[in-house]
Predict the structure.
Amino acid sequence: MNLLEVKNLSLEFRTRTGTVHALQDIDLAIRKGETVGIVGESGSGKSVLSFGVLRILDDAAKVTAGSITFAGLDMLGASESSLQEVRGREISMIFQNPRTALNPIRRIGRQIEDVLATHTSTLRADMKKKAIEALASVRIPDPERRYHAYPFELSGGQCQRVMIALALACNPQLLIADEPTTGLDVTTQAAILSLISELARARRMATILITHDLAMASEYCDRIVVMHAGHVVETATTAELFARPRHPYTARLIASTPGPAQSIATLASIPGNLPDLRRNDLPSCRFHARCERAQGDCISSPLPAQAVRCLHPL
């Protein structure tokens, strides 16, 4: 049984320069304990999808079709009070930039206590102990001292560990990690992702890893969902996706991803740019203008409702 189900989700933003058709006919399913990577270029809709799942979108956003169900709860029809019960307790999120996500004028320990006070029945007398335990669980050195620290006193990697501690303080069923290693050095990136993976396995927690780094997703994810310009174009197990990519965009994405034994000269770029999503005449396949396999029917024929959303797959 799926923990999270997104079906035929379409979402748009109203702007001064036109309506942005940000997501169209999105299908996504996550099982308990599974780690799913959502990959694609910047602007493909990865973060918008995650914000849509949590219902934390800007007022300019409008869901025009589809459904989002989490553990039996209709997320689109739920009241704000019901959503507040789910956010932080059942679904948690690690945001891209921990320094902007953390309150700069509140001590780290107090911020963890705020989460515990909102979503758990922890006694006030036990709050500090629980907060220090949360910091220790993400291997922050000297957690008793860090409890009293402000975010500006910590390194980028330590701030990201604090974000993980905040996200996992209530033992959620689903963790959404949105580009959790942005701005970190390579060694710290590996440590952060290994920590998230280890904690997810230990808690049997479902995880969505949002990243533009396909190599990273291949190392930590059971399945990979490939997005392009607001479409999910391919979904497969990690092994299947790399062994035999079916969508031309997936193949291009893999070819542009450096491997341990590759030189930069062997990498192939993806031609063109993402289409302007404000257009009212967007083709059925939004990769059409960049695809070497494109044919006339890619412009107007409906895309197949299957794991590979392409009329002329590889």
